[in-house]
Amino acid sequence: MTSATPLETCLVLVTRTSDGADEVLLGRKLRGFGRSRVVAPGGKIDAGESAQEAAARELEEETGLRAQTLAPAGVLDFRFSHDDLTQDMRAHVFIASDALGAVQDSDEIAGRWVRQDEIPYVEMWPDARHWMPRALADTLQHALFVYGADGVTLERFEL
Known about the structure:
Layout: E1 7-18, E2 21-29, E3 38-39, E4 42-44, H1 51-63, E5 71-79, E6 89-96, E7 109-115, H2 128-136, E8 142-147, E9 154-158
Parallel strand pairs: 1-6, 5-8
Antiparallel strand pairs: 1-2, 1-4, 2-3, 2-7, 5-6, 8-9
């Protein structure tokens, strides 16, 4: 459905270097929208909350990590123009390279560190392979993804 006001969300790419390899924290979604897919931590922005505040809150709720710094890394727009059940979304992407704490699973996500050269795109939403490498390289600004009638097939995208 093409909604006048998209659902405002956030995503956090938590990065680190371990044993000389660049890693990113991803997780298997355990419930809700995107269940069973591998995703980055994130979620809805609550009323009165900034995207950055929501990113910090969602990261801690879903993984137990606390971001010291959240650097804006771009905006993703998702259109579900042929799906009357899914609201269009706008995701504000952040990078956290200095998160504190140990990763803990939640009822929302089972997190794990993944080498950036081994990101399991085949288990993710089809848009991830297009925007995530750019966000990790700090070259993402804005992207648009349009999904087909089934709500899962990527019809077209603009970077």
